[in-house]
Amino acid sequence: MALYEHVFLARQDLSQQQVDALVEQYKGVIAANGGSVGRIENWGLKSLTYRVKKNRKAYYTLMDITCPPAALNEMERQMGLSEDVLRFLTIKVEAHEEGASAMMQKREERSERGGFGDRDRGDRGPRSFGDRDRGDRPPRSFGGDRDGGGDRGPRRPREGFEGGAE
């Protein structure tokens, strides 16, 4: 049987119990068609980058699935019909990951570090802001000089205009 990682986004106005009920419903669909669901991770309510079906947030859920393709097609068909599921994505994998997913690891590491303001820049040194604090460049000239100097050199007069060459 094929191995899949499946993530779906549920509407923001659902409760966590309703999201869990959706997971159980889709687990039943997979089991009825000869497959099994392994790890299930609820990533919680997260902000979306852009609105999806008038929702600004969604409940994210990851499921590791082992099933034949027909079972996956049936589950995706039912998700497409459901108004509670905003989006879903299924990826075929060679093997299921052991332990927590990258999303859950990220949350755990963040709590261990203490927050974003405590980050150590390591061997990168202090931040610099462009040319402002660099002493290896001369100040820029934008051609505002009356002598025609500047970055592009002196201007040549144009023919046929007042003050131009004849």
UniProtKB/TrEMBL annotation:
UniProt keywords, alphabetically: Ribonucleoprotein, Ribosomal protein, RNA-binding, rRNA-binding
Superkingdom assignment: Bacteria
Family matches, as Pfam families: Ribosomal_S6
Signal peptide limits: none
One GO cellular component term noted in the UniProt record for this chain: ribosome
Membrane among keywords: no
InterPro entries: Ribosomal_bS6, Ribosomal_bS6_sf, Ribosomal_S6_plastid/chlpt, Transl_elong_EF1B/ribsomal_bS6
Keyword S-adenosyl-L-methionine (UniProt): no
Entries under SUPFAM superfamilies matching the protein: Ribosomal protein S6 (SSF54995)
Region spans: Disordered: 97-166
Gene3D superfamilies: 3.30.70.60
Protein purpose: Binds together with bS18 to 16S ribosomal RNA.
Family assignment from sequence similarity: Belongs to the bacterial ribosomal protein bS6 family.
UniProt name for this protein: Small ribosomal subunit protein bS6
Organism: Mesorhizobium humile
